[in-house]
Predict the 3D structure of the following.
Amino acid sequence: MAFRTLFFSALLMLLVPPYSLAVAEVNVYSARQESLIKPLLDRFTEQTGAKINLVTGKGDALLTRLKSEGMNSPADVLLTVDAGRLYRAQEASILQAVESDDLNRLIPSHLRSADNQWYGLSVRARVIVFAKDRVKANQLSTYEALSDPQWQGKICVRSSSNIYNQSLVAGMIASQGMLKTEAWLKAFVANFARPPAGGDRDQIKAVASGQCDVAVVNSYYLGGMLLSDDQAQQTAASKVTLFWPNQKDRGTHVNISGAGITQSAKNIELAQKLIAFLASNESQEWYAERNNEFPVRDAVKVSTVLESWGPFVADTLNVTELGRNNAAAIMAMDRAGWK
Ligand code: FE
């Protein structure tokens, strides 16, 4: 009997390769808040048995940390917002290129890095919001038209140090060229109602309170305010309407939140699986609904608030261009006096 037990344990040891004794793990550095990503990571763990260690932080702080950790970084995956920031990570040699048929199939080519270094996982639109009682939709058309003198002293927008604005201008440089963009910037800045201050929600509040008539903001902030438990935010949001700019030409400027695999990654295969999981229909629906963003593919269902804003034409410029033109955009905004 004892011999048989011994025999079978020996046999078992031969059959079970040593690597299966360790639990597969992926270390994720995320600039998205825990509440926006943790439930999905938990679902991935349920489905695969892989353990995910999540570190959250501010976008720029995570980049600095990854740079200083270099090849010793425990991170396998970087999850962050804005193509401009993902491009910075790429330029700082933090990420590595991965070839994945799954990712290429799931994520449209204009929403991922031209060198396969990062992949878009949600889409955010930078839109115009206007005061319902003072502005009519037919007064609006494009971002470019916000330089018109009719908007003098009537525009609110956050600071040029904000990457969303940098990417908006970078996209304009890509489509209109530097000369036109510079001329537009000067006239646009001259129309500001006040020196830039606060975040996108504050611009919406400023329109609601009559400080300005129009603002340029990411649409999910309006969605978040409309659905907020905070009565003041809800009331402010209800006083404005969303306008989709540039519907007759290149489409509304869009950006992404996305992920890339680090150079230091120990578990590339599992990291890739995780990114593909986040791009799956199931995750896309949850992700978009939770933060009022748009899925990376049209076929995925969107939330009621998003649906109420109707379909829109999105710019199909490759988001890599937003990163490529980032430095030029910052300089041009600075020259135009956009604080
Ligand atoms: Fe944001």
Remarks:
- The first helix runs from residue 2 to 15.
- Residues 16-21 have pLDDT under 50 and may be disordered.
- The pocket of fe (iii) ion is lined by residues 218 (CB under 6 Å).
